[in-house]
Fold this sequence. Notes:
The strands form 13 sheets. Strands 3, 33, 34, 44, 45, 46 and 47 form a seven-stranded mixed beta sheet that branches. Strands 2-1-5-6-7-4 form a six-stranded antiparallel beta sheet. Strand 6 (83-98) and strand 7 (101-111) form a beta hairpin. The chain has three domains: 4-119; 125-258 and 430-467 and 544-649, no CATH class; 267-412, Jelly Rolls. The protein is 12% helix and 37% strand. The protein is mainly β. The chain is built from eleven helices and 47 strands. The longest helix has 14 residues, at 648-661.
Amino acid sequence: MQQVQLYIGSDRVELFKDETISLTQSIQNVKEVAKVFTDFTKTFSLPASKTNNKIFKHYYNFNIEGGFDARLKTSGTIQLNGIDFKKGKIKLEGVDLKGNIPHTYRITFFGDLVNLKDLIGGDLLSDLSWLDNFSKEYSTASVKDNLKGNNTNFTFDGVTYINAIKTPLISCVNRLYYRSTANTSADGNLWYHTGSSQVHEHGVYWKDLKYSIAVYIIVKAIEVKYGITFSNDFFDYSTTEYSSLMMLMHRKKGEAEASYSTGVILYDTFLYNMNTSSPPTMAAATVSSNTYTISSVSDGFTTTGTWGVGGGTTNVSYGYSITFNPADNSIPYNAYLYFTPDGGSITLVDERLGITNSNSFTNNGSGGVLNGKYTVKFSAQESLDFNAGNVVMSAAIVSSGTTLPPCSVCSSRSNNTTISIEEKFDWLPSQQLPKMKVLDFLSGLWKIWNLTAYVQNDGIIKVQKLDDFYSNGVDYDISKYIDVNSSSVNIALPYKQINFKFKGNETLLAAKFNQLQNRQFATLEYKGENPNNWVGQEYKVELPFEKMVYERLVDEESLAQKDIMYGFFVDDNQETYIGSPLLHYTSLQNPNTSISFRDTTVTHSPITTSIFMPSNQVNFNNNYLSQNSINFFSENNEWNNVANIKSLFNENYKEYIKDVFNESRRITKVKAFLPLRILLKYSLADRFIITGNKYKINSITTNLQTGESDLELLNEV
C-alpha cells in the first residue's frame, strides 16, 4: 500500500482511512479525436476533523468573520509516499452535517488545464487589452503603405514583433477585377492607367480593406492577460505555419468603421489660451449710461467694445462661446471640448455627438472660466471640412451668471484656414477583432494542428503536435505487473467516418464551389481505405473559423492571366457578410502588374511595387508542393491550380487516424499494479510493453493507494 497525502497550500488535510482515491488521465483518447485541454478532476470526501475544521475555518458556521472563501480555488498537491505526484487547484464544494454536527467536507481537485479553462471563462478576444499596443492609424496613406508591405513591425518594451499587422488584398464590399482599356469609373477595376481617353476613378477602395493581425500576437496577449506561458515547441516564430497565420480584423459588415468616442480624435486645434499664471486682464470697466466699457483685452482679442448691462455696477466674470459650422450639413460628426489647466492634465469639458449642421459650446461664466488652454477636437466617419471662419471662439464679460447681450465687437477669434477632418482613426485591435471567445480561439488552433497540451512541473503549458508528443515518449516494460486474470480486446474506433469541417463556408466563391462540386471547399470526409461495410457513428472535427476561396484575376479584355490574387468577403448574393473569424496566410508578392488604389471615391493612384495577397497556404511564391496549407482537403491552390498535398489532414491527423482505422488496431483493457517508480515518472507519451507487444496509452485510471491501474492501450501496428 502507498501512502497518499493531500495538501491545500502548505497544510496537509486528513483523509478518510477507507477512501479510495483514483485518477483518470488521457491526452488523446481515440474516442474523442478533437478533444482539447484534457485534464483530470477528482472529488474528495474529507472528514470534519479538528485539523480539517481548522484548515476550512469551520466553513459550516457562516457567522465566523474572515472565514474560508469557497469562491476561490487554492493551490493543491497530491503526494505519493511524500513525493509530489500531481499539482493543481482545490475548490471547496460544501460541508455535510449529521445531527447538525459537521461530518464531511466535499472538495474537488482540478488539474492545471482544467483550471486554465476556468481562468479564461467566457472572455472574448476583445477583452485582450494588451493587443491595443498594436494600434495603427487607419487612413488612406496607412492602409496603402501597409498593403505594400511597409510598417508591419511593432517595437515596445524592448521587443520587436515581426509582421504583426498586415493589409491583405481582401475586399469586404466591392468585387475586384481586371479589365484593361475599359472606360469605367468608381468601381473595383484594378487596371491602372494614365491615358486621357479613359475615366480614371476606379481600383480597390481603401475603406474596403481591413488590417489583419498575426495569430502569434493574439496568443501572446492571452499569455499576458492570464499570466500563463505556452512552451515554444510549436508556438514559436520559427514555426512558419504558425507565425505566418493571420486573422482578419473584421467585426462589422462592410467598410471599416470607427467608433464614435473621445478616443477617436481626428482634428486638434488650439483656439484660446487664458495665458500663464493668471487670467488675462480686462482693464477696469467704467460705468457710463448703463454700459461697461472695456479699455483692453490681451491675447489677440478685440481691445475695445461695449456691452449693455441694464444699469448699475455689478460683479463680472469671463464667459465664452465656441461655434462651429461644417461645410457639409449632411455628414454626422462629433465635437469635443477639452481643457488643460496650467501644469495639469487634459480633461473633457463638453461634447456634441452625432450632430449635423452648426452647434456650439458655451459657458456663461458660471463657476468662472479657469486659467489654461481650451482645445476643440472633431471626429467624423467621412471627410468633412470647416471652412475658414466657421469655427469661432468669443469671449465676453458676464454678469450674475448670465451672458450679456451679444454685440458686434465681442472679443473673438476664428480659424483663418479650412479645417479638414481626414478619414482616419486609431485602429484598436480590441475593438476590431471578430466577436469570438478566447477559449474557442485556442480550441480552434488546437484542432488546426492536432495539438496536445499539458502543464509541466515548472508551470509552463507544453504545446506540441500530437506526433511530436508521441515521438518523445520512452518505453516501460510492465509485463510482470499485469493482472493476467482479467483483460479484454475491443474495437479501436467506434466511428464509420470522421468529418473535418469549417464553421463558416459561405463567402461568395466558397459557396459557388460548394454548389458546383457538391461538397464544401477545404473539408474532408475520412472513411478509411475500405469503408463500405463499416458501422458506427460519424464524428465531426469543426474549426470555428471561416474558409475562403481566393481568386487569381484574368484580364477580362485580353483573357491574359494576371499575377494578382485577392479575396472577396461577401456572401453568395454579394451582400456584406460577417461570417466566422477568418484565418489566412498573406504572401508579399511583387507583381508585374500595377494596380489602381482609390484614395477617395473619385481619385486613384498606382501601386507598382509589392502587395500583400491572401492565400490558404503559407507562401505561393515558392513551390506549392512544399507549402503547408490550412485546408483539410488537398485542394487545388487558387494560384496555379496544382493540388497541395501538405493539407491539415495529411500533416497533422493522417498517421494517427490511419493507425486507429487500421484493421489490426485494437483497444486492450487490462489491469496492472504499477510500482511507484513508474507511477511517478510515466508520461502519456510513453509506451507500455507487454510480452513483447508495444502499446500507446489511450487512458489510465490509477488507484493511488494500491497502485492498481485500469489501462486502455492501443497496440502499435
